[in-house]
């Protein structure tokens, strides 16, 4: 690659609380994963996470003020709660629990969980702590149940519509990012309800038990993998029908084995972007933006809102599939 890959950094004079706090959350989560495997590495991750969180909190300033792309629109309070929550889970240090408890006024009832808005994620984790005895975290439990009620079809307070085929439809641009993340949250919260022996969530006049919440989340995974009006898998390479013109340079430009000559940055656009042919390379496992609000999908490379894959779609989808694979415990059906 011979195109510029400019490095951007945040400093006390040019802060980016969202970026620092999000990195802190990621390192804390990773430290939990590595703790039983490599305790020294786990400790390094946790130490760096603490430093990043202190930086994020001390030098508060939104990344959107100077960012080149993927700017924050929701502010940095969600990332600070997100980071502090993961730090508490990773370290067990009560100062992080005190931090989220003292700042629970920041928490908002939302109807999406995304790269920009982490409130629902933090609320899901903190609701589990609430059911574990931390009763001063009740606002987080209330807020995550508002999230559930905003998504569940038939809820008295539903905010998010579904397509005729049953897919959550939050917004047109890469809609599956919100579907995969919402499904993951619903799986996690249904598991929390079961573990706490809670009946479910009351959404106005309608009650949803944990198994109903979980079943709806599973329906979203099934839709993405082919149970939809188009009978199409929205994961490249899976099944007999999937997107063939994924909006991705690595998929749409021939490999060096087939095309040894150099392909310049502009060449990639002029020679391959508008091609009507299927991609020469299958981007196996990549989830694209998905269908429109009527369950229709035009397999066009140029239609990036629907044909572009992203890490934040696949990452959340892995969480949902892991929840389905990990299900060992028996779950009681809704009482009639």
From TrEMBL:
Pfam families linked: Glyco_hydro_9 (PF00759)
Gene3D superfamilies cross-referenced by the UniProt entry: 1.50.10.10
UniProt record similarity statement: Belongs to the glycosyl hydrolase 9 (cellulase E) family.
One Gene Ontology term of the molecular function aspect: cellulase activity
Protein source organism: Dipteronia sinensis
Name assigned to this protein: Endoglucanase
Domain Glycoside hydrolase family: residue ranges: 1-320
Key words, A-Z: Carbohydrate metabolism, Cellulose degradation, Glycosidase, Hydrolase, Polysaccharide degradation
Active-site residues, as the UniProt record annotates them: 299, 308
EC assignment: 3.2.1.4
GO biological process, one term: cellulose catabolic process
Catalytic activity: Endohydrolysis of (1->4)-beta-D-glucosidic linkages in cellulose, lichenin and cereal beta-D-glucans
InterPro entries given in the database record: 6-hairpin_glycosidase_sf, 6hp_glycosidase-like_sf, Glyco_hydro_9, Glyco_hydro_9_Asp/Glu_AS
Top EC category: hydrolase
């Amino acid at each position: 690659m011979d195109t510029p890959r400019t490095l951007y950094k945040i400093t006390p004079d040019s802060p980016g609380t969202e970026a620092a706090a999000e990195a802190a959350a990621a390192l804390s989560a990773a430290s939990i994963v590595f703790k039983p495997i490599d305790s020294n590495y786990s400790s390094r991750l946790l130490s760096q996470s603490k430093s990043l969180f202190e930086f994020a909190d001390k030098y508060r300033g939104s990344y959107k003020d100077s960012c080149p792309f993927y700017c924050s629109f929701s502010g940095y309070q969600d990332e600070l709660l997100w980071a502090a929550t993961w730090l508490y889970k990773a370290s067990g240090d009560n100062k992080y629990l005190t931090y989220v408890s003292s700042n629970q006024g920041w928490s908002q009832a939302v109807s999406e969980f995304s790269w920009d808005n982490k409130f629902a994620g933090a609320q899901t984790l903190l609701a589990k702590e609430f059911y574990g005895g931390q009763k001063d975290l009740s606002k987080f439990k209330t807020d995550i149940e508002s999230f559930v009620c905003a998504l569940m079809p038939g809820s008295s307070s539903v905010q998010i519509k579904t397509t005729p085929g049953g897919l959550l439809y939050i917004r047109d641009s890469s809609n599956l990012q919100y579907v995969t993340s919402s499904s993951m949250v619903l799986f996690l919260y249904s598991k929390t309800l079961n573990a706490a022996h809670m009946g479910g969530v009351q959404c106005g006049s309608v009650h949803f038990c944990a198994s109903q919440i979980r079943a709806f989340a599973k329906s979203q995974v099934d839709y993405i993998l082919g149970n939809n009006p188009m009978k199409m898998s929205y994961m490249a390479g899976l099944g007999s029908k999937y997107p063939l013109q994924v909006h991705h340079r690595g998929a749409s430009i021939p490999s060096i084995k087939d095309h040894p000559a150099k392909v310049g940055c502009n060449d990639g656009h002029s020679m391959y972007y508008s091609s009507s042919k299927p991609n020469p390379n299958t981007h196996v496992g990549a989830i694209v933006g998905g269908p429109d609000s009527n369950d229709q999908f035009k397999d066009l490379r140029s239609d990036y809102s629907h044909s572009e894959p992203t890490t934040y779609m696949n990452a959340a989808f892995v969480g949902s599939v892991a929840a389905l694979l990990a299900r060992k415990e028996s779950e009681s059906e809704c009482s009639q």
